[in-house]
Specification:
Blueprint: H1 2-10, H2 13-21, H3 32-56, H4 61-78, H5 84-112, H6 123-154, H7 158-162, H8 166-178, H9 191-269, H10 273-286, H11 298-313, E1 318-322, H12 332-351, E2 360-367, E3 371-379, E4 385-387, E5 390-392, H13 401-412, E6 416-421, E7 425-432
Parallel strand pairs: 1-2
Antiparallel strand pairs: 2-3, 3-7, 4-5, 6-7
Helix pairs in contact: 1-3, 1-6, 2-6, 3-4, 5-6, 5-8, 5-9, 6-9, 8-9, 9-10, 9-11, 11-12, 12-13
């Protein structure tokens, strides 16, 4: 009976594992069936092993849970593409959430066996804990699947998720401290009522805190998306005005061209060839330059025009080889964000150099089974800042968020981004799966 009670007690890992998978369903490094098989085998090994340890070793379950949770988190983190901060925050939240059914089962056990202690095993109490764990799974599965899942996919910054860690840790520690060592305590005055009320209020407070976190995070995400859209609209407006000026100038020249033809015809009849040649050359010089089209994607083309004008003003020679198809899996906003971060870093780095040392080479094309390749190389002053192997911005107060954004977008589309440098050149290589 004791072994069965221990088995039931550790079977709560099953609903916890399901809850842990729901928000990260789009972050698996492996196919879904492999993750399912890996999770099943892990639980099949851990659950009976923990039950056997509890049977023969006289240790509290909370002391055993710490190494078990550490092993499970390492397994959890190993199969996910999401960052360490995201995975740890979700894992601790689920541990905290599943501590509530454990405490509720202790309340039930204290009413059935008022003279026993926390260390006594009761199959009925552990069965209730398992049932309540599945009830919590049903209650929170939708929240974890839709809301937390959306947050994990959209907000990939590790530091933002790490900032939430105190919340589950505090709730979990309070839940541990609330567990009665002697069940007789639960029958003193109004302790039992206070115990139950606290847990319902704690669950409600935990939901409110994470609801606020979700709303604030989504508002920040929407704000950033709006800023990107505004940036695109500004660049498109700049391109539109340039094209409008070109069309107006072309219309004026066409209107004047007939008069020029009459003048040239008269000079030809009078055999004034030198004057005719000079007049033709002047007409050619007066013609407006053609508007360059970098690609057929209108937002991306506007982005290139915007940075091309900046680089021309700053005397930064550039050679761009752009070959983009009409349709791509990556959204226009994300592609503009990725390319915009590259071009912005190039513009800033080249601006710090003498004019004769500035240059930028960029290639954007499809290769190797429709993978999008982006290769950028520019000269820079050789100054780099790194932390934990990651490049930091050399802007005053910068954190290298532009390069992080490039890497994040690449990973989202099953690709990769590599950053490297020599003494004088900085290189960015990005591959996006299509």
């Amino acid at each position: 009976m004791i072994f069965l009670s221990n088995i039931l007690q550790f079977m709560v890992l099953i609903p916890a594992a399901i809850l842990a998978i729901l928000p990260v369903r789009n972050q698996f490094k492996l196919p879904v069936w492999k993750v399912f098989l890996f999770t099943t085998l892990t639980l099949i090994i851990i659950i009976p092993c923990c039950a056997i340890i509890m049977l023969f070793a006289d240790i509290p379950i909370n002391c055993l849970l710490l190494p078990v949770m550490t092993v499970l988190f390492l397994c959890y983190n190993s199969v996910l593409k999401s960052s360490f901060g995201v995975n740890l925050s979700l894992f601790l939240l689920i541990i905290t959430l599943m501590s509530f059914p454990a405490n509720f089962s202790l309340a039930i056990d204290s009413q059935i066996h008022p003279t026993e202690t926390l260390a006594d095993a009761c199959i009925l109490a552990t069965a209730w804990q398992l049932v309540l764990s599945f009830v919590f799974l049903l209650l929170f599965s939708g929240i974890f699947y839709y809301f937390l899942g959306k947050l994990v996919d959209c907000m990939t910054t590790s530091m933002t998720w790490l900032a939430t860690l105190p919340v589950p840790i505090i709730f979990f520690l309070i839940n541990i401290m609330m567990q009665p060592k002697y069940y007789e305590t639960m029958h003193t005055n109004r302790i039992f009522s206070i115990y139950i009320c606290y847990h319902f209020l704690a669950i409600l407070l935990l939901i409110i805190i994470y609801a606020i976190f979700y709303l604030v995070a989504m508002e920040l995400i929407r704000s950033n998306e709006n800023k990107e859209r505004i940036r695109l609209f500004e660049m498109q407006e700049s391109q539109y005005l340039a094209q409008q000026r070109y069309m107006m100038e072309s219309a004026r020249l066409r209107h004047d061209f007939r008069q020029q033809l009459n003048s040239m015809a008269k000079m030809a009849q009078q055999k004034e060839y030198e004057a005719l040649t000079s007049h033709i050359l002047n007409c050619v010089d007066a013609m407006p330059d053609n508007v360059t089209t970098y690609c057929t994607n209108i937002p991306v083309n506007a982005l290139f025009h915007y940075y091309a004008s900046l680089m021309k003003e700053a005397d930064i020679p550039f050679h761009w080889n752009i070959s983009l198809p009409a349709s791509l899996r990556i959204t226009d906003i994300e592609l503009c964000s990725l390319l915009g971060n590259i071009l912005e870093n190039v513009y800033y780095a080249c601006s710090l150099l003498p004019k004769e040392q500035r240059y930028h080479n960029l290639t954007v094309c499809l290769r190797h089974e429709n993978n999008l390749y982006i290769v950028s190389a520019n000269n820079f002053n050789g100054t780099v800042k790194k932390k934990n192997g990651n490049y930091l911005s050399t802007h005053k107060g910068g954190s290298g968020i532009g390069l992080n954004s490039i890497a994040t977008i690449a990973e989202k589309y099953n690709g990769m981004a590599q950053f490297s440098n020599t003494d004088k050149e900085f290189m960015i290589d990005v591959v996006l799966g299509q």
